[in-house]
């Protein structure tokens, strides 16, 4: 065996000795929890969905809690970011273009300047079409809590936004042929399930719309990894 072959085999052996965790640590893995609200049912029967298309479904909330990871080299573990969207048509309608859309972002008030920028870029990467036109970014104290029961999540952004959810039950099957009519708005989800929003309020002044909604089968909860 010549010296070149010995060198190659030696390098290969060294690579195989490196723990897998070392490679994970150098990757850009970022993980956490996600919740979404739409002002139209996402879990519903076709008759209900067709009754809402073109009339509602233009507003949405997308919220992320970063459990661990970095973005563009900036650590954002434990921080939150929330997007509020106002689109031009029912989001998800295959026959109408919801764009252009306008959005505002609430970034965690605990974030420093670099983390704030990273949170904005992270959110835009998860839903680039809807979040391509951000008209305002505000730092707010954001609480993102996963409840004791599966499907139970609550999010608040200062006194401007509140969202809470619960899992679906038998009483939520109205026409008994319900299914997921719209898919989640964020990418990189490793799990997502439709849930009922028990409360959704927004009182900001940037989008020209506010709401106070409850009891709609219009949300997703899940987790992401990228």
Assess the beta-strand content as a share of residues.
Answer: 35-45%
How many strand segments?
15
Which of globular, elongated, flat, extended, rod-shaped describes the shape?
A: globular
The average pLDDT value, as a whole number, equals 85
Count of spatially separate domains: 1
If helices are DSSP runs of H or I spanning 4 or more residues, what is the number of helices?
4
Uncertain residue ranges: 1-27
Percentage of residues in helical conformation: 10-25%
Largest sheet: 11 strands, mixed
Structural class determined from secondary elements: alpha+beta
**N-to-C span:** 43 Å
Q: Order of helices and strands, N to C?
A: HHEEHEEEEEHEEEEEEEE
Radius of gyration: 21 Å
């Amino acid at each position: 065996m010549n010296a070149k072959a010995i060198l190659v085999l030696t390098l290969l052996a060294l690579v195989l000795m490196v723990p897998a965790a070392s490679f994970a640590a150098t990757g850009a893995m970022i993980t956490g929890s996600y919740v979404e609200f739409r002002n139209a049912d996402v879990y519903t029967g076709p008759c209900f969905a067709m009754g809402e298309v073109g009339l509602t479904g233009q507003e949405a909330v997308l919220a992320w809690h970063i459990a661990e990871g970095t973005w563009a080299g900036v650590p954002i573990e434990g921080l939150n970011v929330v997007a509020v969207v106002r689109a031009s048509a029912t989001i998800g309608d295959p026959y109408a273009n919801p764009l252009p859309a306008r959005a505002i972002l609430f970034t965690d008030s605990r974030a420093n300047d670099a983390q704030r920028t990273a949170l904005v870029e992270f959110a835009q990467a998860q839903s680039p079409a809807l979040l391509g036109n951000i008209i305002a970014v505000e730092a707010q104290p954001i609480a993102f809590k996963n409840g004791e029961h599966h499907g139970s999540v609550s999010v608040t952004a200062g006194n401007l936004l509140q969202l809470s959810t619960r899992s679906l039950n038998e009483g939520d099957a109205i026409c008994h042929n319900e299914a997921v009519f719209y898919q989640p708005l964020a990418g990189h989800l490793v799990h997502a399930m439709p849930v009922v929003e028990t409360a959704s309020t927004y009182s900001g002044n940037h989008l020209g719309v506010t709401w106070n909604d409850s009891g709609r089968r219009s949300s997703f909860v899940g987790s992401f990894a990228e």
